[in-house]
Design goal:
This protein has 306 residues and is an alpha/beta fold. It folds into 2 domains: 3-222, Spore Coat Polysaccharide Biosynthesis Protein SpsA, Chain A, CATH 3.90.550.10; 232-302. Helices cover 35% and strands 19% of the residues. The protein has 10 helices and 11 strands.
């Protein structure tokens, strides 16, 4: 099985060496690594090339491509370019500040071949807090166990709207390349872009596709102050309605509604954590009250459905 790892890179000079090192010492190497530098303004590109040169002996059997963009267009655009260039049977994304554990790709390869999995969601550990995700207790009844750590997700369109499922958080998904042919990341959607993308993927999967969850720490995800999920806002209006919610407003599809409910909950939590004052938080709630109440009802109704 050939596996392509796609890395969008933007201003991660402090971390890219560790990310490349984690790929260099995989028990089973990736067949292809594609790094898309999104017009970094620090020394990320220099450190990337130095790292690849230093670990060249470990990458003798790996096809490595570096794409240097001349304009910054965001990680979604970078990932789309990577998808187009990927030659592996399977594709995964790795953020430029994160690391695969040493057995990650070998575990993935074995599971996919033995269980005929088409989409595999991986567990992550947050660094430095050492918190592990997902917490499967809240949605365990929606899973079918295959082993102590491996589960089938028979109705992934339903399960993705569980607040604890984390599909797309920390780029924690491996997928057959054939299922990405007609699907792209939304370039202008930055908050929850991963969840939005993978939901779109799930909606286009054939019914025969098998989705799995490996409940094991496979990716070390850095908690970096200044990343989008940790950004602060001076004014409530800066927190626009996410595209992933706008897209399905008015939809009567139960899965669309559940997704909006879950994303609205995250959007509200993000606002309460990142707005500077109670006045700004109150204005956010008042101006989006109708959406929050309506989508909150969808999320509440989710618990009664399978």
């Amino acid at each position: 099985m050939e596996h392509t790892v796609i890395i969008p890179l933007y201003n991660k000079e402090a971390y890219i060496y560790d990310t490349i090192r984690s790929l260099a010492f995989q028990d089973k190497k990736a067949s292809q690594i594609i790094v898309i530098d999104d017009f970094s303004t620090d020394r990320s590109l220099i450190y990337l090339k130095d790292s690849l040169s230093f670990f060249a002996p470990q990458f003798l059997q790996t096809d490595i491509k570096i794409i240097e963009l001349e304009e910054n267009k965001g990680s979604g655009n970078a990932r789309n370019i990577g998808i187009e260039l990927a030659t592996g049977d399977f594709v995964s994304f790795l953020d430029a500040e994160d690391c695969y554990t040493s057995s990650c790709l070998s575990d993935v390869n074995l599971i996919i071949e033995q269980e005929n999995i088409d989409v595999l969601i991986l567990g992550i550990v947050l660094v430095p807090s050492d918190d592990y995700l997902p917490n499967i207790k809240s949605f365990e009844r929606e899973l079918v166990p295959l082993s102590d750590e491996l589960f089938l997700v028979p109705n992934a369109l339903h399960t993705i709207s569980s607040p604890d499922f984390i599909m797309g958080v920390g780029s924690n998904v491996v997928i057959r390349k054939q299922y990405l042919k007609e699907i792209c990341y939304e370039i202008n959607d930055f908050l929850n872009e991963g969840i939005d993308f993978w939901y779109h993927v799930l909606k286009n999967l054939p019914q025969s596709a098998r989705v799995g969850l490996l409940n094991k720490a496979c990716i070390e995800v850095r908690e970096i102050e200044g990343s989008l999920s940790r950004s602060s806002y001076a004014n409530w209006a800066a927190l626009e309605i996410p595209i992933s919610i706008k897209r399905y407003m008015g939809s009567s599809n139960r899965y669309d509604q559940q997704l909006m409910g879950m994303l609205s909950q995250r959007w509200l939590k993000h606002a309460m954590e990142r707005l500077p004052s109670w006045q700004q938080k109150a204005l956010f709630i008042l101006n989006h009250l109708e959406i929050l109440i309506k989508n909150g009802y969808y999320l509440k109704k989710r618990s009664k459905q399978k």
